[in-house]
Amino acid sequence: MQFTHEQRLALQAAKIIELTNQNGMKITLTNLGASWMSCILPLASGQRDVILGSPNIAQQMQQTVYLGATVGRVANRIANAQFSIDGENYKVSSNQGMHCLHGGEDNFSYRVWAISQRHAQQVVFTLISPHGDQGFPGELRVDTSYELTDENQVIIRYQYQTSATCPVNLTNHTYFNLAGENTEKTLFEHELKIHSNDYVPTDKDGVPTGAWRGVTGSYFDFRQGKPIGRGFLQDEDQIMVGGYDHTFILDSTRIDGKQTVASLRAPAGDVQMNISTTMPAMQLYTGNYLTSVAGKTKEYTPFSGVAFETQFPPDAVNHPEWGAKYSPISYSNQRYTSETCYQFIF
Prior knowledge:
It catalyses: alpha-D-glucose = beta-D-glucose. GO terms for molecular function: aldose 1-epimerase activity; carbohydrate binding. It is an enzyme of class 5 (isomerase). The protein is mainly beta. The chain is 6% helix and 38% strand. It has a 9-stranded antiparallel sheet, with no helix packed on it. A 6-stranded antiparallel sheet has the order 16-27-24-21-18-19, with no helix packed on it. A 4-stranded antiparallel sheet has the order 1-2-3-4, with no helix packed on it. Strand 2 and strand 3 form a beta hairpin.
């Protein structure tokens, strides 16, 4: 495994942090990418790690599928890696063909964040992204906080401020498999419920085509709950991108950070994860491109895990017609916050 000088320095600076609650639930995190590396539930049948992750920090540095990472400045796609603000055009890093994905080539998931606070059940990672980083305007300061509560919640909070008007769209890219990271079971047997009436159709590159589409009568209707495998790859939208890799517009009456917007149930029904958020949308990604990824106990393959990336819709910086609620634009010297909670019931 060959590393550049910068990567070697990053490896030396990378730290592993463990948080444990009074129930014996434990998560491990690293300041490399402010990433969530493991989530161990103390089940009656034994300990179970329910998220995909790299076997070590060196592999985390090498992986390209954003395992557990904080991604930014702008999660998801920016079409043609360009946008304009107040009449000024910006060209940013293109790392998915001609498009910008998850903030560009050297995005936040590869940075070593400072550990600015650390407590028994909470840690805060801090990153300063300079003006011009990956082509984005303004200096951006981000605090990413992870808290493990005694209610078996993992709460991820973002607080950020920029010195110039700029799109900011932060999310977490953890992949879940509630049957266990080491299981042979895929996400297909998991039951999923999403409180969403509309999704965002895309082209083959995952770039929105423009108009949203109602889920009624489609395989994107998870409002009543259904196995992820039911209706999988049965429509053109999915076939184009190899599965689900689409944003769902969340029920706006539920995005208060308290109410459940989505829930995932393990195949055996012994674990459930409820998601709440203050963000208006969520990308459902079924790990379509997990090919021979080095994992903790085995190589991960497509559909080994599923990600729920709460965020503003993709390419929203180029779609002002969607409205201010869905816009990622941050204005200079204003403080912004968001949070997403993953609660485990077992």
